[in-house]
Write a structure and sequence with these properties.
By secondary structure, this protein is mainly α. The protein has nine helices and four strands, in the order βαααααααββααβ.
């Protein structure tokens, strides 16, 4: 695979106004966090259909990664508020951003401008722990309910008991009484909004390159990466 390396020198970086420079550095970092978690979620969501234990564990693992991604989306939007809007940087560069970047920003403002699932999940399940919600979910358990704890030969242990109850509490917070609809809404909103936030970051970062650095690059080769369709992230490992 060909990689194009754009060299950024200190004098070039210093040409960028301080507030603008800090914004670009921050959203470049944010973009990487979102893309890593998004890739992990996509690869973790490939549930092995022929084994109920692996299906169970993979689904729980997907929820864990999705909650972290939801938390980063919330924090990312707060960063945009502080580093882009509050600094008035939006008045300086917004008219120079491409239409698709502005479209993504408009969708982000519309979503985060009202009460939303991502904010609730961040505050109660991703970066904080809501003990009251878990206690409430436990109180709904019936006498016939059962859970499992998976212990592997490798000493990997998966407490399906914990993940089932916490995920159920989370899905109840998304939409009461319908776990299937809650799951679909949960994953859809996280994936859609992560794409919108990445698109906004990309537009701003390309503006930085075009305005201050230029696209001149050196070409190098890296080993061909694996096909995404062939990748999976197991919980149990030897």
């Amino acid at each position: 695979m060909k990689i194009h390396s754009i060299l950024v020198t200190k004098p070039e970086l210093d040409k960028i106004p301080e507030i603008e420079r800090a914004f670009y550095v921050h959203i470049g970092h944010l973009r990487h966090e979102l893309m890593v978690l998004k890739k992990l979620l996509e690869r973790s969501a490939k549930n092995p259909a022929d084994n109920f234990v692996l299906r169970d564990v993979h689904l729980s693992q997907s929820f864990i990664i999705a909650r972290l991604l939801a938390g980063k989306l919330w924090e990312g939007w707060k960063l945009i508020g502080k580093a882009y809007f509050s600094t008035k940087l939006s008045l300086t560069i917004e008219s120079k951003l491409p239409d698709d970047t502005l479209e993504a920003l408009g969708k982000l403002k519309k979503y985060f401008g009202k009460k939303n699932i991502i904010g609730s999940l961040r505050n109660e399940f991703a970066f904080h722990y809501d003990a009251q919600r878990v206690r409430a979910q436990l109180s709904l358990a019936e006498e016939t309910d059962t859970w499992k704890i998976y212990v592997a030969e490798t000493e990997d242990v998966f407490f399906q008991l914990s993940e089932n109850i916490v995920s159920s509490a989370m899905l109840e917070a998304v939409q009461t009484g319908d776990f299937v609809a809650s799951t679909e809404t949960f994953f859809k909103e996280i994936m859609v909004m992560s794409s919108q936030l990445v698109d906004f970051c990309d537009g701003c970062l390309h503006h930085m390159i075009k305005t201050y650095i230029g696209y001149q690059s050196d070409e190098t080769e890296i080993p061909d990466p694996p096909n995404c369709e062939d990748l999976n992230i197991p919980f149990f490992c030897k």
